[in-house]
Fold these 2 entries.
Entry 1:
Amino acid sequence: MSPELISILVLAVVFVIATTRSVNMGALAFAAAFAVGTLVADLDADGIFAGFPGDLFVVLVGVTYLFAIARSNGTTDWLVHASVRLVRGRVALIPWVMFALTGALTAIGAVSPAAVAIVAPIALSFAARYRISPLLMGAMVVHGAQGGGFSPISIYGSIVNGIVEREKLPGNEVTLFLASLIVNLVIAAVVFVACGGLRLWRQGSVTKGEADAPKGRGAAIDVRLPPRGLDQPQRSDTGTTTAPGTHASPTTTTTVTRDTTPTPTAPLPLTPPRIATLLSLIALVVAVLVFDLDAGLTAITLAVVLSTVWPDDSRKAVGEIAWPTVLLICGVLTYVGVLDEMGTITWAGEGVGGIGVPLLAAVLLCYIGAIVSAFASSVGIMGALIPLAVPFLAQGEIGAVGMVAALAVSATVVDVSPFSTNGALVLAAAPDVDRERFFRQLMVYGGIVVGVVPAVVWLVMVVPGWG
């Protein structure tokens, strides 16, 4: 059995054990990286740690640290209320606002993980407050980032167009951008419907009291009470009971106030810690987008400054960093790095590229791009797979523009996977969730995307022979 095949089988075993025994998959992956790297690939410790995602580790820690402080001092609540007021209380519009915001950030030049790191904590805080599916909100943020990710001035777009030019392939920047935007927009619409978005539309607008009340305070909401049977006692809002044999109107509308705390009518106040935190978030955006600074290091620096000035608000923030998620993601990506070091990914790609049927090779390359990118760098896999497609693109049987667009979309749309940078950021940023359950939801959703999207984009973009 070849070393490459052994490494793939070990990865499958890691998934099975983590799923059936509830062991942190990252810890298992570190052990697998040590065993396979040492016994199969003949790597030393430096070779094994070459795949450790140090930059992602810092981003996960820094961003979750900063937003833990923001949650502690009420800044995220203030942002949520501001978002509600911006769309006039229409909760159903907020996921689309987040989709558009991350799309705009990547389209003008933000790296996709940086845009997600900025938007996801705010979006998921909103989801937690208004009982929106975290999977829906996380998917809208990630797909928004990828929807704008291939504009001619974006990072992804510039890289792919540069590879196309270097390989002397026909290219079309606008087609590449629109292909990614349309695919992610369609997927976002499907997820919106599947995860309860229509229910949010039927819910209408939140009341002013609910929009402005701090989390945990009373909020006025309309509750529809269904008809009761004739022989069932009915309790009124004042605590009295209606005798059997009498009944109320078929549908009774009442206003219920949660808890006993009065509902404020004024927006949350901007206290000095909240103002400083908002300025820190703005500074994070400017540092990443304008000065091209590292998002993780910048976030940690800002968090440390806030912690020093207001230690009471941030005392528990370090404990709220998503350490299990950090272990999981870093462990899996370290093992994927071992696969890359020993040539497993190149081995699989070259095996597909040698197939004599161009259309079959094309769809297999799309699937390889999707599967590998779900665990590794999207840019890296695009840089590896596009050159592998050159030999059969030169035959003229497949359009180069469609093939490049299909590869680009397949390799990036799967970033909802919890093992990718974007998916990991969404998982880490979600407050007040069962993290293991949310991880499984992201993994299942990522698996569906990996299984369906490459075939669809191949059928739509490659088979007709675009370009």
Entry 2:
Amino acid sequence: MDERRKKRVRRLKEVIIGLFIFFLLVPVIFNSILLREFRDLKKRFDYLEDSYQILNDEIALYKEKINSDAKVYIVDETESKASDTALSDSADQEKAEGALSAANDVIKSSSAKEEPASDPAIIGPKVYLTFDDGPSENTDRILDILAEYDVKATFFTVGQTDPASESHYKRIVREGHTLGMHSYSHKYSKLYESEAAFKKDYKKISKLLTKYIGSKPLYYRFPGGSSNSVSSVSIKDLAAFLDSEGVTYFDWNVASGDAEKDPLSAEEIYKNVIDGVKGKDNAVVLMHDLATKGTTVEALPRIIKKLRSEGYNILPIDENTEPVHHTIRK
């Protein structure tokens, strides 16, 4: 009797142990299968994402080619129609001002490479109003003022994906202004940590703006300027990388002063700009498009009216603009 009972107990223990092992192993096996499936799915997703990016890049390049071909056609047609008057004007056009002379400026600038000369059709000193760090709550106010005075400017923007910012990016381009890049993150420690970090940030802002405006942005401004002392890598190497991407970088040779920690009044900003452009044939003015820069917006109409009264051509940065480069520190 005892022997039978022992056998039943032993069998019961074996069943219990077997069940325990079964329920212990099944989840492990199941999780292993799920993990393998997840890895396969991730590989497929990464492949699709890469394919999508390649397709987007090809579409962007195709659009650029179409736009470029269209511009060539329009220019050729216009030149053909204007050929009778071009000869009489050519002598005057050749007298247009050339390279920047800023030896006595507070901000030293020099050209890092040979760039195309300014458009000879425009006679007289040129001023490029540029706005960094946007878009912001003030972007529409700035654009409204520019529209009121029929002035085109340049916006070096950072990366933002909210609907309002997307609308601002598109409006900037739609109204004939130049949309440039000012990094995606604008975080110095992250952006200038390494060349790889800079390239990653550049590709992110370039991809974002290309997505919103349908074409690749061609102009860049280094946060802190190319003369900044924060970067852990050579700015010359970063500039060479931008050049390989077909992108031109721009510094500035006139500072509005609106980047100071203590906010300046509209009168001070106006004075800084007007005093700064004096004696310059190619003035690139630094201003900021931030929600905290209300006095910049207030000063803008007066700046525009004064520049016009002094005979300055107010233009957006384009392929004819002579780049202004600071003296690179390293």
